[in-house]
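Record format v2
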Amino acid sequence: MAFYGNNRRGLLIVISGASGTGKGTVIKALFDKLPNLVFSVSATTRLPRVGEKDGVNYHFMSREEFEREIAADAFLEYADVYGGAYYGTLRREVDKHIAAGKDVLLEIDTQGAINVMDKAPDGVFVFLLPPSKEELRKRLTGRGTEDEQAVAKRLAAADVEFERAKRYTYLVVNDEVNNAVDKIAAIIAAEHCKASRCNDILDEVTKN
Amino acid sequence: MAFYGNNRRGLLIVISGASGTGKGTVIKALFDKLPNLVFSVSATTRLPRVGEKDGVNYHFMSREEFEREIAADAFLEYADVYGGAYYGTLRREVDKHIAAGKDVLLEIDTQGAINVMDKAPDGVFVFLLPPSKEELRKRLTGRGTEDEQAVAKRLAAADVEFERAKRYTYLVVNDEVNNAVDKIAAIIAAEHCKASRCNDILDEVTKN
């Protein structure tokens, strides 16, 4: 299936979803389906683990370096998480792929995504939903690894995420992985055809 | 391929394209691919031809009736063409299908489409483009039915259409029929996932 749109530049695609929506499985299947899709390598101040390569797993930076990049507005989003280490998405890392015609996928939480909406309003923002609250409860309980209190906490966190979901461009219900993947692939193909992204094509056709 | 989006209401899809873009072939193939897609029956003041049925081929109306509907703002678009007969798209005809969850396709010219943009801003507006001006010239010449002057006239008319194309939501290059059909199918699937169309789904998931 030849599925790519008209424009030659890549897209920035941001995917978020509450825990229990099956985001990881969907994203894995999406990469299998779309050869033009790439991950963006994050920057971090945490130390490399054994086997991790700079520029491959992460862009490893010192805290000073990272804060200099923050000051230079080099990040689409960043957060200070996991016990004091910074993690972030460099705008130039994303732009490099987009200029080469690759679609870049960012898998980030709603707080990070809302920051990206401000910095990259031409991004495509997809929020993954479970089919129902009941189904979400089942999936979280079904893991069997968490007690009732932990499940209740996750459901409350999900409500906060759902409230933020209204600001996304697209909502995709993950009823079945293949359906959700087909829908996201369709969203990517459609966004490539957006008139606002296709000025070069129109010039091509109208030139004499 | 399960390709429909989240929302339960249908979409209004408007397709236009300059002559020589292969619009007819693409639309025929699109109907073969998408069982949820329907044509809207136009209203007209011309007399029924032998075998034509009211409500099936057209909604046949008297001139007085048609003008009463114009005055009542009942049309998404209409035009007075082909030697004095009115042709138009009734809003209630489109709404009926949309409420039933069907996607409605209108194949109209750019002037009509611009009227629909005003009356139905939640419609999906797709403009079909030839791959290049040169290719368009080849296709128009290749028909062999028209002299050079007629071809030049059609090319000039196409330029007017291309200028209006900027106002459409999506541009789709018809390089190959299957590619164009896949892209339009993707656009329809993606539009069904637009957050602005999916309030009911979000309510479903967030209710306790």
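Residues 148-165 of chain B form the longest helix (18 residues).
Confidence is low (pLDDT under 50) at residues 1-5 of chain B.
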